[in-house]
Specification:
InterPro entries: CMP-NeuNAc_synthase, Cytidylyl_trans, Nucleotide-diphossugar_trans, PseF. The protein has about 240 residues and is α/β, with parallel strands linked by helices. It has one domain: Alpha-Beta Complex (Spore Coat Polysaccharide Biosynthesis Protein SpsA, Chain A). About 30% of the residues lie in helices and about 20% in strands. A 6-stranded mixed sheet has the order 4-1-5-9-6-10, sandwiched between helices. A two-stranded antiparallel sheet has the order 2-3. A two-stranded antiparallel sheet has the order 7-8. A hairpin with a 2-residue loop joins β7 and β8. It starts with a strand and ends in an 8-residue tail after the last helix. The relative contact order is 0.17.
Length: about 240
């Protein structure tokens, strides 16, 4: 039987927005949206939060997540990557004799995640025989026309594309920063979600993507969420 785990990484040391992972987002702690989406999907044998913080752990438990162990100091500093956290979690479960075929890492500040998105993204893995999946949004402007500053002046980063029509340039995407699927055995061997075999994509509408790195981002995310709650969004 195939086993799946949802890993929600939520350390206590957020700098730009203090206590960001449990800050109230339209009526409840923002991490609650990620936990509830994972539980709502009914995809997972385990929905866990990896944290080094007692208050975050208590909030996560209140919304139905498990906290089987406290995150190590080495995986809690400013230099620890998402892959470092996921590897620590999976390794600790393995040491306890519990193994998972698939892991989904859901960010704790991703209120636009839903159970439906998780279900449909997981089905894509099998439709295209992927080993991992990342949710993305299309870049609204061709990055091949990007501008850079050089010696105080602006110039094209890729001047060879200066005469190309926008519609003829290859479509590009960026990480939506919401969730990632990985086949655990390949991930533990390779150690990076984007070098984990064949990586598929789950495309999100621009309206459902918002980095939350500062207070202005937070306000924009709340505005988008309010608008989305009033209408249905279609997916590619």
């Amino acid at each position: 039987m195939m086993k799946r785990i949802a890993i929600i990484p939520a350390r206590g040391g957020s700098k730009r927005i203090p206590r960001k992972n449990i800050k109230e987002f339209l009526g409840k702690p923002i991490i609650a949206y990620s936990i509830e989406a994972a539980l709502e999907s009914e995809l997972f044998d385990e929905v866990m939060v990896s944290t080094d913080d007692d208050e975050i752990a208590n909030v996560a438990r209140a919304y139905g997540a498990s906290i089987p162990f406290i995150r190590s100091k080495s995986a809690s500093d400013d230099f620890a990557t998402l892959a470092d956290v996921a590897k620590e979690v999976l390794s600790q479960y393995n040491d306890n004799g519990e193994y998972f075929d698939w892991a989904c890492c859901i960010l704790p500040t991703a209120p636009f995640v839903s159970g439906d998105k998780l279900i449909r993204s997981f089905s894509i893995l099998f439709d295209i025989s992927a080993d991992s999946l990342i949710c993305v949004k299309k870049n609204s402007y061709p990055i091949q026309r990007s501008l850079i500053e050089s010696n105080g002046f602006i110039e094209l980063m890729f001047p060879e594309n200066s005469k190309e029509r926008s519609q003829d340039l290859e479509e590009t995407y960026q990480d939506a920063g919401q969730f990632y699927w990985v086949k655990t055995n390949i991930f533990l061997e390779k150690g990076n979600r984007l070098s984990c075999g064949n990586t598929g994509k789950f495309v999100l509408p621009e309206m459902e993507v918002q980095d939350i790195d500062n207070y202005q981002d937070w306000e924009l995310a709340e505005l988008k969420f309010k608008v989305l709650s009033r209408r249905v969004v279609s997916y590619d």
